[in-house]
Amino acid sequence: VEASIPEPQREAWQRNQITGFTDKDGFEKEVVRHVETTLARSMFNCDEIAAYSATSLAFRDRLVTHWNKTQQRQTYRDTKRVYYLSLEFLMGRALDNAMLNVGLKDIAKDGLSDLGFRIEDVIKQEHDAALGNGGLGRLAACFLDSLATLNFPAWGYGLRYRYGIFKQEIIDGYQVEVPDYWLDFNPWEFPRHDVTVDIQFFGQVNKKTADGKTVSVWEGGEIVQAVAYDVPIPGYDTPTTNNLRLWSSKASGGEFDFQKFNSGDYESSVADQQRAETISAVLYPNDNLERGKELRLKQQYFWVAASLYDIVRRFKKAKRPWREFPDQVAIQLNDTHPTLAIVELQRILVDIEGLEWDVAWEIVTSTFGYTNHTVLPEALEKWPVGLVQHLLPRHLQIIYDINLYFLQTVEKAFPNDRDILRRVSIIEESQPKMVRMAFLAIVGSHKVNGVAELHSDLIQTTIFKDFVAIYGPDKFTNVTNGITPRRWLHQANPRLSELIASKCGGYEFLKDLTLLSQLKQHVDDKQFRKEWAEIKYANKVRLAKHIKDTTGVVVNPAALFDVQVKRIHEYKRQQLNIFGVIHRYLTLKAMTPEERKTQMPRVSIFGGKAAPGYWMAKQIIHLINSVGAVVNKDDDVGDLLKVIFLEDYNVSKAEMICPASDISEHISTAGTEYVYLQLSIPFISTSYSFVENGGHDGEAVTDNSQRASGTSNMKFVLNGGLIIGTLDGANIEITREIGESNIFLFGNLSEDVEDLRHSHTYGAHTIDPDLDKVFDEIEKGTFGTPHDFSAMIAAVRQHGDYYLVSDDFHSYIETHHLVDKAYRNQDEWIAKCIRSVACMGFFTSDRCINEYAEEIWNVEPLVVERN
Ligand code: GL4
């Protein structure tokens, strides 16, 4: 308040309001000004990076005025805000997105051209902001875009990792990890050196009595400082610009501990500083896996404590009573990573603000919502009690108290059931004892949601079943994931977006994706189909060029492009794909030249990172590259088969790849050990006519609980590609929306999965004969030293084939034949693509955010007026 300008002088400020450029001349002026002043360069040494920097700064200036206005408006109106806590925000590039959301990309294009640059080249200079691993982090980024576009007062809170997800290089066919130093120059962040929070670790808890009241005081230990870095998040076609606040760690007391420094202990003062900075140094590169490292827990508490301090500070400004906290604040926990926030808020309210336990707990549970993203057991977070005790002694006490009160209510409700207490306890009575973070998140939240219908059913009937019995079904809900059509259609595929706009009454569909349904009326329009096909072809040409530039391999853009890009994981079954590719290769080799002429040319495109410690995933990458090395130079097959591994798959590459795919693969194994239930999927028939779709007669398709939702499937379909998949997470809902005839489904039934696994382990496990031949070929050394791939083969032949690669192999191969056949009829293929896109309205993240807002957060949009 003291920093505000007094009333009489405000007129001068208002008179000098910065409005930002609105036309080409204005844009050019700003770019030149930034090149010459901010960057201290000139037209004699302005390269593409400088042009990128100046363009970004020009747009950033525009965003900042909207951003300030949005924040002022939200503060003034004092409405409820949403805080999205996520350890990962996989944002990708910001400039293109800012230009499109602000709506001045055409102006920038012309302006840059006047100044001697091509806008595409300028955009490409930007380094991806890659603060995430895969689907979970990208979902958070899509949600931020939708929150701003829908004018919700919302902040994201995360960590500002110095190193995001590593850069992947492929050297001699192997993945090599290179650090991703992305902060060299980042015009999109604003350091707020004045917004800092001291975060405490270690120490001990002492009881103190004052005014007849005993309180717990957490004392001693060490302090690390959190510094805020703010990133503006522009909405599409709205001035609303929200904030993503990322915390960076720093030694408290600045650069050095001067006392230590002056007393000659230079080394130790530097060591302290480095130890503090380590906290936000690096993103853990695992997807769907928690490794229980102490530093990871430190990251979690550091980020959560800083964010809560900030949220509470903001709430306290309005001097409202504490009970109104949940009317002003909704906090969403993106997976269990921020679960300590529940404990931290209880600590603030009880220990610092002096509220009664029950009053505080009511506030806490009304504030939080928790999203579960996986049922994979290795991804469910548990922390050793001893580690929590050491790092956060007061928090462990609070966790024990939360558990005690919780178990007391359970005991009351289930007086004769002793076992339920053991099953639902937040503390697992194992050796060592563990804190079960998902259970803590459920107990401390008012809503728990899964991310696809099937996934949400599954968590309620399996891992969280007891909690449904305790709390009733209303606490649990589903919000099926979605993607932002701004980035994943308009930005990634501008020509398709334009063509769609010409049939759907302009670009309104980008804000209301259900308007895509108007495309149905145009499916039979020959000219429209032709233009559609031309755009797909042009996107394939662009990808072919990228393939040539990065791998040296020439691919035919007229071939069927078959894409599987995502993190490499055994459950996602890239191994099934590459074994299928080898089978195709062997089949082609066995054909006469005449027979080969009848075959459909294919390009099998893979991409994705393996966690550095995931050895099997790295073998899969190596096999893909080794197969490519042989196949791509085999003149017998020529254009009929090419195998490509695209290095360093990330958001900006995805924007190029998705528009260029004809078919993409979403083929993870059906079911897990948790799936004993039989889910009926009413809109999916249990028998298929063989030709119309990818299923098999009498073979029902199935669920997949390993992958919670999957979101890349949505990106591919939205860009006019078809998909081949198991009935997995969101594949099920995609099938419901686009119809069975527009998707290629295959694979075993989930209810058969357990039996199949059992038979592998205890019976004679016969491998599919075609797959056997593939293995024999690998073992002959056709693709390099067989030993390199022995574990992959052994996993199927000897170790029980947990992911059912052999069981699904035949139906996978058959389905690919159907794909080839369908692709020959280009006209019908394009029609299927158009029909599918027309039905994708449901999968916008705008729909997700509206559902969260209504069902979980209870927040309203707040429109900010334009200037
Ligand atoms: C994931 C799921 O594996 C993925 O299916 C889902 O789409 C994504 C977003 O909800 O969350 N869970 C974890 S852990 N990583 C993911 O990508």
TrEMBL record:
Signal peptide: none
One annotated Gene Ontology cellular component of this protein: cytoplasm
Keywords from the UniProt entry: Carbohydrate metabolism, Glycosyltransferase, Pyridoxal phosphate, Transferase
EC number in record: 2.4.1.1
Residue numbers carrying N6-(pyridoxal phosphate)lysine: 715
Matching Gene3D superfamilies: Glycogen Phosphorylase B
GO molecular function, one term: glycogen phosphorylase activity
Keyword Transferase set for record: yes
Catalytic activity as recorded in UniProt: [(1->4)-alpha-D-glucosyl](n) + phosphate = [(1->4)-alpha-D-glucosyl](n-1) + alpha-D-glucose 1-phosphate
One of the GO biological process terms: glycogen catabolic process
Top-level division of the source organism's lineage: Eukaryota
The keyword Magnesium is annotated on this UniProt entry: no
SUPFAM superfamilies, alphabetized: UDP-Glycosyltransferase/glycogen phosphorylase
Cofactors named for this entry: pyridoxal 5'-phosphate
Annotated InterPro entries: Glycg_phsphrylas (IPR011833), Glyco_trans_35 (IPR000811)
PANTHER family: GLYCOGEN PHOSPHORYLASE (PTHR11468), GLYCOGEN PHOSPHORYLASE, LIVER FORM (PTHR11468:SF3)
The protein's role, per its UniProt record: Allosteric enzyme that catalyzes the rate-limiting step in glycogen catabolism, the phosphorolytic cleavage of glycogen to produce glucose-1-phosphate, and plays a central role in maintaining cellular and organismal glucose homeostasis.
Family: Belongs to the glycogen phosphorylase family.
Protein name, entry field: Alpha-1,4 glucan phosphorylase
Species this chain originates from: Pochonia chlamydosporia 170
